[in-house]
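Title: Prediction job returns without error message
Component: structure pipeline
Severity: low
Priority: P3
Assignee: unassigned

Description:
Job completed but the reporter wants confirmation the result is attached to the right record. Sequence as submitted:
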Amino acid sequence: MSTIPAEPKHPIQVVARRTGLSVDVLRAWERCYGAVQPDRTASRRRLYSDRDVERSILLRRATEAGRPIGQIATLPDDQLRQLVASDIAAGIRRIGDVPSAPPEMVPMRFVTRALDAIGRLDSSELHTVLSAASLALSPADLMERVMVPLMRTVGTRWEEGALGISHEHLATAIIRAVLSGIVLSRDLPNSGPGIVVATPAGQVQELGALVVAATAASVGWHVTYVGIDVPAASITEAVAQAGAEAVALSITHPENDPNLPSELKSLRERLPARSAVLAGGLAAPAYATTFEEIGALLLRDMQSLRTVLTSLRSEHGGLAA
């Protein structure tokens, strides 16, 4: 008697690779929207069917075209296929992907849609737009042409009174979630260089540090992200425990902290001599003299950060980005 073979099941890491969605996005779509309902093992590990994988790909394509996940998550597969087919027929495969739009304009379209979502306090749409950008763009374009301009525009509009504190907080929360997902979703080999990312004591703005962490992860570094306002002693402990070869510091505000120079000098004294120290951010140039004294690299833009990280990675054995 012949038996029907069991339907294959796939762990979430396999599904992430097949669909192009991060593990965090897959979990969020299941938990928040019920988009896909995988089976569970006795130990609560998710197992996805081939149909689950196909549905996740359809959802990804629909959100790339600008459809909010909250509006399509529970649609039947047939309707999802029709939506995706209609978007493709209209020439729209990703947000901003219009036949007449030159490639250099696509990142700005993500920024425009993100700002519109922030203005309407639509956290779901903002997450959808930024998740789509992370799928559609290279890591360099995502950071340099979407995330950084978006954060700066939000900051400027908040200072001018065009956005309220609720808008700024919403934007910060969603950007933080997307950037954290990028850092956590990198699947790197066990060997390779490590980097500790933080803001030093007195620096309490986080998004710049998360951009640095996501950028480092995208070029092959194992990132230990320890957060904001971290004293020199704690950064040093993290470097020792992680076995990291480098430290990256984000310094955004203020530009005249009288305690920061001594904090930076203390960090350098505590670190092993071989440890590289990188620094950047809007306020970092104000402390250029101190960085020169301690032998730290002051990086004035994202391209410089990527170049230096890639070079240092090669010195430590090299990893595929």
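Comment from assignee: result matches the submitted record. The longest strand covers residues 222-230.
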